[in-house]
Design brief:
The protein is elongated and about 60 Å long. The protein folds into two domains: about 70 residues, no CATH class; about 150 residues, 3-Layer(aba) Sandwich (Rossmann fold), CATH 3.40.50.720. Strand 8, helix 5 and strand 9 form a beta-alpha-beta unit. Helix content is about 45%, strand content about 20%. The strands form two sheets. The protein has a five-stranded parallel β-sheet, sandwiched between helices. The chain has a four-stranded antiparallel β-sheet with strand order 2-1-4-3, with helices on both faces. By secondary structure, the protein is of the alpha/beta class.
């Protein structure tokens, strides 16, 4: 590998940005492509699919062979609220391969006894998220029902472009939340990205069922990320 390509690839990985090393197997030349970089034609389609799947692959394009070595950051799930839903969600996230962490300033809830083997921060979300910034490979699930805890986290998640942002609460609760987020500076387009009520509509009632619905919706959003943007671009061509 070209040392410059290796340096560029490692920089993207440290920053939790997806990148792909494209190698032309005919002449051995390679280059680093970042997710979102424009690549035309069938090769561009193959690269987009590689980013979505997270799997490296061989592509035969117009008589030429390319190896697509894709590097996608591990998906991260940040849960705001050390509640019963979070307790049920933790083992599901681990099984699905998500790095999960919980943030809740309420020390009576955020205890290692309730959340063993989970990254747990008994601090205000805005303080932790300054130290541990959100990014497009992070999902945020807000489940405290307390605006003092929830709203700052939601505002930061929308600004960071997280691939999933969900918030617990009824439609009436969400209507009030929308007004508060607008006051914090969030736009209508940003607020429209929030999944609320949170989770896929499976009729969930118990905390465990809600956790199943949330995890399913997170996975769906992760596997579909970028598809709507691609469709919108196609309409403008």
């Amino acid at each position: 590998m070209d040392p410059y390509c290796l340096k560029k690839l490692n920089a993207e990985r440290r920053a939790r940005r997806a990148a792909l090393l494209l190698t032309d197997l005919g002449d051995g030349r390679d280059r680093v492509i970042k997710e979102g970089d424009p690549v035309a034609g069938l090769l561009g389609d193959a690269i987009s699919q590689a980013f979505l799947s997270g799997k490296s692959s061989l592509a035969e394009i117009e008589g030429r062979s390319f190896f697509l070595n894709v590097h996608v950051p591990p998906p991260r799930l940040v849960v705001i609220g050390a509640v019963h839903i979070s307790q049920a969600l933790a083992p599901m996230a681990k099984i699905a391969g998500y790095d999960m962490e919980i943030i809740d300033p309420r020390t009576a809830f955020a205890t290692p006894e309730r959340f063993p083997d989970i990254k747990l921060f008994a601090e205000w979300p805005q303080d932790i998220l300054e130290q541990r910034p959100l990014d497009p490979y992070t999902a945020v699930a807000v489940v405290t029902h307390d605006p003092k805890i929830d709203d700052q986290a939601l505002e930061r998640a929308l600004k960071a472009g997280c691939f999933y942002v969900g918030a617990l609460g009824s439609r009436k609760t969400h209507t009030k939340r929308v007004e508060r987020l607008k006051a914090l500076g969030s736009s209508d387009d940003e607020i429209a990205l929030i999944h609320s009520p949170i989770g896929l509509d499976i009729g969930a009632a118990s905390p465990a069922e809600i956790a199943v619905a949330v995890m399913a919706e997170v996975i769906k959003a992760f596997r579909a990320r970028g598809l709507q943007t691609a469709r919108n671009l196609e309409k403008t061509v």
